[in-house]
Amino acid sequence: MDENAPSAKAEHHAFQAEVSRLLHLMVHSVYSNKDIFLRELVSNAADACEKLRYLALSEPDMLAGDETLAITIESDEVGRRLSVLDTGVGMSREEMIDNLGTIARSGTRAFLDGLSEAKDGGALIGRFGVGFYAAFMVADNVRVVSRKAGADEAFAWMSDGKGEFTVEPVGLADAPLRGARVELHLAEDAADYAKEATVERVIREYSAHVPMPIRIRSVGGEARAVTDGSALWMKPKSAVTPEEYKEFYGTVADAFDEPALTVHYRAEGRHEYSVLVFVPTQKPFDLFDPARKGRLKLYVRRVFITDEATILPGWLRFVRGVIDSEDLPLNISREMLQTNPILEAIGRNVTNRVLGDLAKLADTDTANFERVLETFGP
Fold first, then answer.
1. What is the pLDDT of residues 169-216, one digit of tens each?
2. Is 334 left (phi over 0), alpha (psi -120 to 50) or beta?
3. Nearest C-alpha neighbor of 298 from the set 206, 365, 196
4. Is-contact 148 136, C-beta < 8 A?
5. Would you tell me the crossing angle of helices 108-117 and 17-25 to the nearest 10 degrees?
6. What structural domains does the chain harbor?
7. What is the pLDDT of residues 64-79, one digit of tens each?
8. DSSP annotation of 173
9. Any idea what the Cα angle at residue 212 is, between residues 93 and 37, rounded to 5°?
10. Backbone φ/ψ region at 346: left (φ over 0), alpha (ψ -120 to 50), beta
11. pTM
C-alpha cells in the first residue's frame, strides 16, 4: 500500500479548470529549463518565512517553540524523492485548497488564453503566484504537509497533477512543528534531482542569495549549510570590505582580474532596487561573441531571474554584476522579461550612475580611467 495514499478522511477536490490548463501549459511550453522547479519551491519557502517574520513583529507568539526561519532540502536518491521544508507561516486546510487548487486572480482566463497562443510563455508578464505547479514538471506525485503557525492541527495536500487533489488531516507527528514540507516523488527521467550534488548545483545557481539560509541533506545524513541567507549587494557600502568586493566580482564576472570600478548603491522611491556592478580591468575574451552568456544578473527579492535580460545599452556590455529589484513584475516562468517600463527605468538609472562614476574616475584616477578607455572605448 502506498504510504502517501489518501485515507478515508481525505476530501477529494477537482482542480480549477484554469489550474488544469496551467499544469499542461507549464510543462509543455512555458518552462524551458527543469531546474526552475526548485527555484520556484525555494522562492515560495522563502516567501513563507518572510511572511512569518513580518507577522511576528506584531504577534511574537507565532514564533513560539522555534524562532529559526530557514529552508532545508532533503534528497533520497534510492527512493527517488526530494523534499523542501520551511519553517515559515504554514497553511491551514482552507489555505491549502485556495492556494494549491485554484488561481483566484482577475484576468486569469485571458492570461491563459494568451499563454496557450504564445510561442513562448515568456511573452507575458504578471505575478500569478503559480510557481508551485512547476513541481509537476519533475514529479509524478506531490504531497504538501503543513502546520500553520500557532495551530494545533496539520493537513496534507496530495495530487498527481491529473485533474484532482486531496486534502486530509494528519497527525502532528507527521507534520513540521511549523511551516510546510513539499514532498516530490520524482519521475524516472528526473531522478537526477534526488542527488545531493544536483540539488546543491541548482541552489548555488538560482537561489544562493534568497534571504533565508538554505541547508541540504541526504536521507539519514547531517544537514549542511549551502547558503547563509545574506546578499552582499544588500549590505551598505561601509559594511563591505575590498576583499569581499573582489571575491564577489570574481564569482559574478567569472574573472580573475580586479575591477577597475565598483558601483554599489540602493535606489529608493518610485522603484526600489539594489545595484552592485563592476567595470573590469581586462576585456573578456568573449565580449563580442553573440552566444556569450550575460554577466549582468537580474534578481527579484534575492531570487535569480535571468542573465539574458537587456538592461544596459550594448556599449556597456562589459559591465558585470547584479541588479536586484523589489517590485519588478515578472512573466509566468520568470525566465524571460518582456520590454518593461520599470526595467527600462532601472536600466537608464544604472547607465547614468555608471557613466557618472566613470567621470569621477577620470578626475581621481586618470591612469585607471585611461586603461578602461583603452580597453573598452571606441
1. 999 999 999 999 999 999 999 999 999 999 999 998 888 888 899 999
2. left
3. 206
4. no
5. 30
6. 11-227 (3.30.565.10), 232-376 (3.30.230.80)
7. 878 899 999 999 999 9
8. G
9. 65
10. alpha
11. 0.72
